[in-house]
Amino acid sequence: MIFEPRRMHPVAGFLSFLKQLKELILPFIFLFFVGPGDDFETYFLLGACVVVFLLLVFGILHWYRYTYRIESGELRIEYGVFVRKKRFIPIERIQTIDVSAGIIQRIFGLVKLQVETAGGGMQAEAVLTAIKEEEADQLRELLSRSKNHQEEIETQHTKFTYQITSKELLVLASTSGGIGIVISGVLAFLSQFAEYLPFEKLYNTIEKFVSLSILIYIIVLIALFLFIAWFVGILIMTLRYANFTVVKREDELFITRGLIEKKQTTIPLTRIQAIRIGENLIRQPLGYATVYIESAGGSLDKGEDFSTVLFPLVKKSAINDLLRHFVPDYQMKDVENFVPPKAKWRYMFRGMLFFIIFVPAIVMLSYVFSAWGYLGLLLLPIGAILGYSRYKVAGWSIVDDQLTLQFRFFSKVTVLHHKKRIQSMDNKQSFLQRKKELGSVRTFIKSAVTGKGFEVKDLDDSDCWVIWEWYTKRNKNLTEEITVE
């Protein structure tokens, strides 16, 4: 049992060293390229070796000084190289326990365990970077607050299992936003090292073999760049969501994903605050959606805006069946109440508003350089179309204790709220909305650090008050129950 102070596997020291080294890579590269003279390179390499050695020593000391144990209903951690620190985490405050395994951990048969609490801040409350898998399972059992857990582990049965298919994985990777991340990363790299890259030599080489005008050359180059970025995006998403599996046991969900880096997340059903369903512009016409869990607790490592992916890609028609097995408190209901027609022009104007800011610059550049620049004004009708699509989607529905909100920014989003999980609600009305008898409803749930909100704008004023009365009735019932007790 883990009642005596323990240290992580020595590999943890090396991982700590790599983490510190990674943060210094960009400064090292910058100094190497901008450093003055040949003498600087000698001193730079000598200094870099000293820094790397000190980081390695620090990583070893960090591993040696880091101990953990379970005592008096708490996970107790002591750490610190120069200043000794202690952190005591009561077991009842623990929200989720995540287990992952990167390349280095998998080589040595180890895993990384993260413990998160509702108020744990932007990072995980406790991170054990390298421990044995059996020890991680033992810790997870001890940190779960179930009674007679050992006996239940032997007798419990899997209620339902979901696993992504090869077809779904391919569609997921092909229609994801990963291409945007790849393009952003490549452009950031090019902006830093453009002067060292042989663009002119590349162009001259191509020109020798293919007689192309500069315009066609640029078009071909951009098309090739986008294709490579799309392919790399597919590869990244495939590696991330390969072997994606959701298993429900008793009142917990076990989510596992990853090919190279294997991750496992444990989420108690009682910690789920809302269900979010996203349909991007590509997947929506194909009838596919992604389902997220909004849960109490979280860290920056979660990604996806502090949300946890429950089903990466499913047919929209299959969502209710899956929810019924995995999170039976939530069901996807059709939105029955949409924003009124008088709100249409407000949505279209908001859609154009961002592009209107650039109109003076577009006109000025077109006047100075070329009339072709006036094509930039096409952004205005595009913004209007985007605003109209937001207007057509926005709406709400109430069925028993569930509130469904639906809206769009670029992707269509449907949020399923359980009444008792809504932390607060705002019923807002601006001066211009008041003249049109419109209003906005915004809900807040406990999620991550500061919570998370969802808003539907320009609802009919009467609809806002229906939602508000539904929510305040919940508060009255809670007050009556407390008074009776």
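^ that was protein a. below is b, sequence first then the tokens
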Amino acid sequence: MTIQRQYSLPNCTLILEGLSDGSAAGGGQIDTRPLMTILVNAECRFTGQTQSLSGGRDFLESLVRAVSRYAQEFLSQVRHPKLHEEKPSLVQLEKVQEKNLHRLTLLPTDEASSKGMVSNSVSHTGVQQGKLIQLELTTVQLFDLVEAIDQFLADRRTLPDMNVLLQPLSKRYRKADQPIAKRAAPATLGMASLAFAAIALFFAPIPEVRSPKPVAAEPNSSETTSPSPGEPLSSASPSPTSSPPSASDLEEVLATVPEITDPTQLRFLQRNLYTKLDQSWDNRDEVDENLEYRVGVGKDGEIIGYKPVDEQPSDAAQDTPLPELLYTPTNGSVASQEPIAQFRVVFNRRGVLQISPWRGYTGKPSLGPEITDASVVTELNNKLYEELSEKWEGTPLSRRDLVYRVAVTEEGVIADYEPNNQPASDYIRETPLPSLHKPEAAGIGGAEAELLPQKPLAQFRVVFKPGGVLEVSPLRGSR
């Protein structure tokens, strides 16, 4: 049976298909997913790019090495010496200085030709590529590619023999000293530079070593042990005014309730958790180290538990919104046996929030039930355009397009929306979407306490352009 693993980010998706050779049994493993040991095909897709990249084991290994090395070079501003290889790397990355982009090149090989990787088509830039493939990625797309690769490497049930080894460079490769402001040129506009800086968390060549600090044994304090993928969460330190369940009660519940693994439900919960934490994290400048947590979330989006992934001070969580947002039952006990979803949450010392499913995605998330009737979609398209154009007064701050996915009910009510590029996330308040957003119209977070749409929605691509032009088109078939 073919095994498929998918690591999805807003701007990049890495899909791996393979088999198990049966050499490693799953006995004793909490994670019951089959172990993928043989790679059949790897595919990498980018939002807004019509061309995808695919190949076998050589392609994937080359992609992991090239992206990891490029990220290290980009952050350190020190270029690696040329490695003396028998043949050039299958995947190559280079900076496009004049466009502030990153060119990803896939060279033709015999393996590439046999798998259809070689293309004679015209790329999205209109340049004839001959027998190689070139994609120009934004910094946000590159950042999501790095995170997708990091999720794959952290998934020990997928090609566990594959890893990436980065070594610190000798000082002789360092450029002559010059002012740091001159060397640290911004990678992109606005918050994109902050987002890309978060790559350092995954690819820093020499990790910082800290001696663990002793923690007093208190019934309600956060545990500081590093969990394995199947280990239960612990309760977090409650606020002084609440009466949360004891740590042992919460441990017991989280160890026995079923886990949410449906990709679509995970995706909606991940988006909700990101929005909730991002809006509540006010003291970003006070976090001077990366704080990583395993967070349990109910199907209604409430945070019901969290636990540090690495050893860190017991009071470190107070620098995050987690204690404030932790759900506390009114009766002081955990009575619910509802399923939970688990996420890896990183509060980066550079002020960047990163969230991904604890075990990754087991399939491709969908958008929930959809309205597909062409005549209805056309009518809703016109209605959405009229409503947005009436409310929108232009984007005076952003110089780039703000691109969103917007979903409306059959009555034309905006029930869901999602930024599709970094400027859209940065300048959301310049658009009328937050004020028009009514998730309850689709039953999201309604009586069923679900974050999934209970009614079918029509999906659209909405672009707010700096010049005051508004574009609305059906999501299916739009570029």
